[in-house]
Amino acid sequence: MSLERQELEDLKSKIGRDPTSTEVQIVAAEWSEHCSYKSSKKHLKMLPMTGPSVIFEKGYDSGVLDVGDGYVVTAHIESHNHPSAVEPYGGAATGVGGVIRDILSTGTRPIAIFNGLRFGNIEKDPQARWLFKNAVTGIADYGNCLGIPTIGGEVEFDECYSNYALVDVAAIGFGKKENLIKNHANKGDLVVLMGGSTGRDGIGGSQFASDSLETEDRSAVQIPDPFIEKLIIEAIMEARNLHLINAVKDLGGGGLSCAVSETADTMGIGIELDVDKVHTREPGMHPDEIMVSESQERMLIIIDKQKLKKLQDICKKFRVICSVIGHVTSGNLVHVKKGKKTFAKISAEIIANAQLLDRHSKKPAYLKSIQKEKKLDSITNYSKIMITLLSSPNIASKSWVYGQYDHEVGIRTVVKPGQDASVLRLDNGKFLSAKIDGNPKQCYINPREGAIGCFEEACRNVVCTGARPIGMLDHLQFGNPQDPEIFWTFLESLKGITDFAKFFQIPCIGGKVSLYNETSLGPIKPTPIIGVLGLIDNTPLIPKKINNSDCLVIIGNTKDELGGSEFYEYIHRFVGGNCPKVDFKESKRNMNSVLDIIKKGLIKVAHDCSKGGLAVAVSEICMTNKIGCKISLENVPGENLPPDRVLFSESHSRYLLVLDKKNLKPLENLLQKNKVSYNTIGRFEGNRIQFNVRKKSLIDLSVDKALKVWMNSLENLIIHG
Amino acid sequence: MKVGVVVFPGSNCDRDMFHVLTDVFNLDAQYFWHEKGLPKNIDAVVLPGGFSYGDRLRAGIIAAHSPIIKDIQKLAEKGVPILGVCNGFQILVESGLLPGVLLKNNSLKFMCQWTNLIVENNNTPFTCQFKLKEKIPIPIANGEGRYFVDDNTLKKLKQKNQIVFRYEKVVNGSSDKIAGVCNEDGNVVGMMPHPERAVESEINPIDNKPSSLIFESLLNTIGVEN
Q1: Domain boundaries, chain A
Q2: Cβ-Cβ contacts under 8 Å, B12 against chain A
Q3: Could you read off the pLDDT of A585-626 as tens digits, one per residue?
Q4: Which residue of the set B13, B34, B86, B144 is catalytic?
Q5: How many CB atoms lie within 10 A of CB B136?
Q6: ipTM of the assembly?
Q7: Which of A263, A281, A492, A683 could bond A199 through an S-S bridge, CB–CB 3.0 to 4.6 Å?
Q8: Domain residue spans in chain B?
């Protein structure tokens, strides 16, 4: 692990001498892209981060939202891409562990896990299958053991992730506002390291994650132990209840180096520590190794001397090791010793504040050609195309994935995985809805509109449960930022997300930037992921049973927007065309109208229209309810388009609503009053999914057959290849 | 009446069980850490689900050697109702309080899904309010949930009416579709599915009534005092 030459010069001039090797290691960990955000930090400031319910506390790695009645929700998102690409089980599992500890650091109990997984083409590529299968098991084993439900996520496959993996993990916490740990420290307080022992695993992890993945550096991958994490959670909860903790921080990227220097810097204190006091997994570790090891399941705690005994008693009960490794000093020096010998003595401010960079950006050349439409082969058998789409790994049911996650533990899960967004009940009688979405296919064609689309889709999903979006997490994943064309796509996505967040007044409460996502095959497609949290004050919309003669209404216009769609990419193998664009005003009208409709109790089901377009969205309703539907495509509002475009366009701001026909009139009154584009496009009946154009049959499929294909194709692919 | 909820390192359904016992069924429940003793006058004991000791070696085997198990054995002999759910069932089996073993599901995967149980014995403290063959929609969530006994033991279980619940359909390859069993006296019951996840209508999408009868049976058995 080392610093770039310029950075080393910079460090020398700041401290006025040659740094020691330990200092170089500490600074290199903290100045890595992974820890310092040196390429992105200047630009991230554009995101709106405040709002009436946002609570800000010093040194938090998670966002905090006030949900009323004295309760708060915390949330954070992380990725573990590089490690997962090398060792998917451990990489994904430790990704979960890390984000859970970020939630724990606020003093809230983690109550839910989400994940976004992306791999290469699993139909062709056995390595992608292996990565996928093991990442899912890694997440399952870790979350299940902790007893924190994994309640939602998304899975996507695209050749741009060949030989690689994107593993994004988000977590939600819940607790009483009064129990939030308000980080503070006084001179003489003790610095305690709690949890797993420090070993030689994960050495240099943050730097490993700050370069393209060309060598598989296994020692940089961490080893998971969910049992220790579970004990840490319970120990911290007990210590919190007894008000023992002054400040707490998770050891993540950069290990002890980053935890100590960031804690010292944010709180304006100095920390003196002795590496001999750190409990290690093996003897003979060098101070440099101890300082940058990313061994998992460790927490740094600052505690008043008088309270140490009580903390030790709690740790003894749970058989968790806690070592007093140092104390708080005045000033702001991070002073690392081994016994009496000093190995590093350097200002926390210097360590924690890397020189921020102004990266160059330039519009990528590929964008000029890619946004053009192309004449495609005409389709003769739409039913066959429909079956192919339903079996596409991107559209097929993900029950094989979430069936391995305990999504019920904690008994909060009201709306379970497999629906638009999952819903959790909170202790104050309210409900929290959450969803994460990404769409690299659209983001590749148009990084700005694609990113906005992800944001709107996550909002639509949450809105379909009756929740009002109250906060957002963003995770921006791109290739090497030193390439101006890649950096341009990063900036465009960020600007799009910022514009949407500002227009809708949805504060960004946390996020992460992950760069250098490339292999020798090249960079990934721009992959921003957006997580949206929504709050339901009264009753969530829990999907109700659909009966014969119930109506299907669509809200929103269908436009000629098939760029990045499954129809173009999976059926026609065509990458390009018009990327769907969100009209902010239309989006807001539609969103508010759906919330109104749900509140008035007019509908049985609301479903977002996204991947695979209208055709797939309607089929999903039919399949999950085991009922047929007859749809008249000529009634779909929007541009006058040929039927394939109406069926498969992925235009945003569209919702499908199912209702008893007696509610149709009041629904129409409300939609007309709100000036929303809508129409009744179908009736539920029988057991066939039928799409017609002016009575002429285009698609005619039995629900059973569609269901069988949709439910089983992913599992078949994994088991039989 | 006091119901003890035993907590092992790694238990993770203890809080859910406690909530259901106290907030839903108004029972007086109390947590007992595995290193503490259980009071002699306790009315019932529940071993909740989770991953005690991280499922190391084999699910339930380490917890089966916890100090509290001795007290549970004594209470079991006295006829006190004892229920083990999921990991609690695994612990009861590993400690010899119940026959059989729990193996990895034949899918070799962790399985979280809703399933139907059939009541096969309505003569235990946890099933006395059921009709025989009553159907219970309930979720399972386990990786080592395949109940296995050899043919002789299975025969004995049948003779002594120790099969309490069966799955309606084959779920994980359990011997004779067994989902829950009891000891010969019937006071110690173990089951893999999670009744505490199915008693509240808010989180049970199907029908919360049947699962509630497990707790109502207990209430009925130990009597409503206070």
Answers
A1: 51-352, 359-396+543-721
A2: 145-147, 230, 409
A3: 999 999 999 999 999 999 999 999 999 999 999 999 999 999
A4: B86
A5: 26
A6: 0.96
A7: A281
A8: 2-222
pLDDT tens column, B66-125: 999 999 999 999 999 999 999 999 999 999 999 999 999 999 999 999 999 999 999 999
Tokens coding A636 = 């779909």
Residue in A147, A403, A405 closest to B12 by CB:
A147
- Count of pairs with CB atoms under 8 A, one residue in A, one in B: 80
- A136-162 burial string, b = 16+ CB within 10 Å, else e? bbbbbbbbbbbbbbbbbbbbbbbebbb
Q: Which residues of B touch A (CB under 8 A)?
A: 9-10, 12-13, 15-16, 19-20, 33, 35, 49-51, 53-56, 109-113, 139, 141, 143, 194, 196-197, 200, 202-203, 205
Q: How confident is the model at residue B226 (pLDDT cuts 50, 70, 90)?
A: very low
Task: Quote the pLDDT of residue A213.
Answer: 64
CA-nearest residue to A426 within chain B is B202
Q: How many residues can be counted in chain A?
A: 721
Give this prediction's pTM.
0.95
A51-352 against A359-396+543-721: fold identical: yes
Taking domain A359-396+543-721, whether its CATH number is 3.90.650.10 is answered by yes
- Cα–Cα distance, A380 to A386 (Å, whole number): 12
The CATH code of domain B2-222 reads 3.40.50.880
Residues of A in contact with B51 (CB under 8 A): 144-145, 147, 226-227, 230
CA–CA dist A6, A19 (Å, integer): 14
- Does domain A51-352 bear CATH number 3.20.20.70? no
Q: How many CB atoms lie within 10 A of CB B132?
A: 11
